[in-house]
Write a structure and sequence with these properties.
Helices cover 29% and strands 16% of the residues. It has 596 residues and is an alpha/beta fold. Its EC number is 2.1.1.-.
Length: 596
């Protein structure tokens, strides 16, 4: 049947009004474009924008100088607006949404310059409470601490989480294991040595609220869970509020911030990572991270998934090209074991996979573009394959092979272990820090070296995010060989986590984190660094800073400005370094309510 065309005179008045409106809008946009491009108005607006940026930069520099001199008036740095309660400077969707979508570039870290951001203290949300203590927080958290219902509404039927009275509760389920992660792990035990200490370090990609990683804690496996900041909002924040190791990251265009061959076990449960895209670039990155002899588990698409036959065939082809041993295909779950020695490449494969040059450092991973070549296991010397390294917990104290690659590494490792055992005992017994109590669960060491501080806390109910500064010697592989976890980071940038995620932050040598190791020149300000520490620290959380007396004096002035109550102490007996120790507590302040 043909379309009936009415003459213009018989069109309805509504059609004319709509057409007039569209034409008017288009003419207005054309006029605006003409004014901006061909008149001084555009130049004036551009100049105004540049002037605003310049003023922001000057204000930032003025505030930093006032804080460091102790002449800030009023005496505290101002609070940010209430819509900053979940602010993540490097994962800000308002800014990053303008970037390229290719390979999810826009969902990776993109940090603004310090002078382009307001110097303010991030407030807690209205109704915030001191978090539920460990281990009760594994199963329930305060709803008011992160009042985001989207995951509970969309995923509650899959057992992720649900609202119940003043709490969010976590039944332990997930999309691929709605009956609970415990049942799922029992199934995996048929194929993987989850018990017995053979496996210790695990990576969970696209982790949701991290129930899988939380359940593995009971098996003695320490899982680093990651996911991007996404439409579900705050899944990593929920994980950290539960006391589960996690941070925000996106597998996009860059390597993840971990050294090569760190994880005994890598897991994806409906993480929807296109492992075979871009000539299998993402599978190659997983291979870089997986320890020789380690296990890779993928549950969900495309494993035996409807209408994804080609994707499933391609995934198997990549694994075969890398000589992974197929352990099992159980429903929609596949389990592979990585070969224990060097890759079987080169070989004939449809993806063109080749080994990286011998000069490539597979542990370079800070803002390092993904490579389309496979990391050589021989590029890292020593025995670090699953089955070759000691079982947990013996591996914690035995000198790892990667420590021997550092000059005088064995002596440094043993001295570092003794030093931190002595220091942590002093923290507990003389400084009365409540390490070991249920009130402290999430701990960060901002300058971890060999992980000695974390190792000294191993009998306490804590987990430690060991941060190795990106410009310092790469010792993070040693930390993973010990069975601990951590990331690379540059402390002149904000950290990839939500506000209020750590109970305790420790740093030895804070001033060095702001300097260029090769020139000793400052690259950023201590004020910006401590404002960032305040952002990620929970109200009533603790900070311990060790440095020279002169630096500690400067830190004390800044601590006042960020509303910390601080005391300064002498170092522990037997220490020969010229140091003092600042112990601070973040105050629990709130924005004034609209009625006050």
């Amino acid at each position: 049947m043909g379309h009936l065309s009415l003459p213009a005179s018989k069109r309805s008045p509504r059609q004319w009004k709509l057409l007039d409106l569209v034409i008017a809008v288009l003419l207005g946009l054309v006029l605006l474009f003409f004014l901006l491009v061909f008149t001084r108005l555009g130049d004036s607006l551009a100049a105004s924008g540049r002037q605003s940026l310049l003023l922001a930069s000057r204000d930032h520099a003025r505030l930093v100088a006032a804080v460091e001199s102790g002449k800030l008036y009023p005496s505290h740095i101002e609070s940010c607006p209430d819509d900053y309660a979940d602010h993540m400077p490097c994962e800000d969707p308002r800014r990053n949404s303008q970037l390229s979508r290719e390979m999810n570039f826009y969902r990776e870290r993109h940090c603004p310059p310090p002078e382009g951001t307001p110097l303010c203290l991030v407030p807690p949300p209205e109704g915030y409470k001191i978090p539920v203590q460990w281990s009760a927080c594994l199963d329930k958290i305060w709803h008011s601490n992160m009042p985001h219902n989207k995951i509970a509404d969309r995923k509650g039927h899959q057992g992720w989480m649900k609202a119940e009275g003043p709490y969010f509760i976590f039944p332990g389920g997930g999309t691929m294991f709605p009956d609970g992660a415990g049942h799922y792990i029992e199934k995996l035990k048929q194929y993987i040595p989850i018990t017995g200490g053979v496996l210790r370090t695990s990576l969970d990609m696209g982790c949701g609220v991290a129930s899988f990683g939380g359940s593995l804690l009971g098996e003695g496996i320490l899982t680093m869970s990651f996911a991007p900041r996404d439409s579900h909002k705050s899944q990593i924040q929920f994980a950290l509020e539960r006391g589960i190791p996690a941070f925000v990251a996106m597998l996009g265009t860059r390597r993840l911030p971990f050294p090569a061959f760190s994880f005994d076990f890598v897991h994806c449960s409906r993480c929807l990572i296109p492992f075979t895209a871009y000539n299998a670039t993402y599978f190659i990155e997983v291979d870089r991270l997986l320890r020789p002899g380690g296990y890779l588990v993928i549950s969900g698409p495309p494993v035996q998934w409807p209408k994804q036959d080609k994707e499933w065939a391609d995934l198997q082809a990549v694994a075969r090209a890398l000589c992974y041993d197929l352990i099992a295909v159980d429903g929609n779950t596949v389990i592979w074991k990585k070969p224990g020695g060097d890759s079987c490449l080169p070989n004939q494969n449809e993806f063109g996979l080749e080994l990286c040059d011998e000069s490539d450092d597979p542990s370079s991973a800070w803002y390092f573009k993904l490579k389309k070549c496979v990391a050589r296991t021989s590029s890292v010397k020593g025995d670090y394959a699953v089955g070759m390294i000691p079982k947990w917990p013996e591996r914690l104290t035995k000198v790892p092979a990667r420590a021997r690659l550092v000059k005088n590494g064995v002596d440094l490792f043993e001295a570092d272990t003794r030093r931190w055992a002595r220091r942590v005992a002093y923290y507990k017994n003389s400084l009365n820090l409540k390490l070991g109590s249920p009130a402290i669960r999430n701990v960060m060491d901002m300058n971890a070296f060999f992980g000695g501080f974390a190792a000294a806390l191993i009998s306490d109910p804590v987990w430690v995010m060991n941060v190795v500064p990106a410009r310092k010697p790469s010792t993070l592989g040693v930390i993973y060989d010990r069975g601990l976890t951590g990331v690379y980071h540059d402390w002149c940038e904000p950290f990839s986590t939500y506000p209020r995620t750590y109970d305790f932050i420790h740093v030895a040598g804070i001033e060095l984190l702001t300097k260029d190791p090769s020139t000793s020149k400052s690259r950023c300000h201590l004020v910006d660094l401590m404002v960032e520490m305040d952002r990620i620290l929970r109200p009533e959380g603790k900070v311990v800073i060790r440095d020279s007396p002169e630096v500690i004096d400067r830190i004390s002035r800044i601590a006042d400005a960020v509303r910390w109550s601080a005391t300064i102490h002498e170092q522990e007996p037997g220490s020969h370094a010229r140091e003092k120790i600042l112990v601070a507590t973040k105050s629990f302040w709130k924005l004034p309510t609209s009625s006050s």
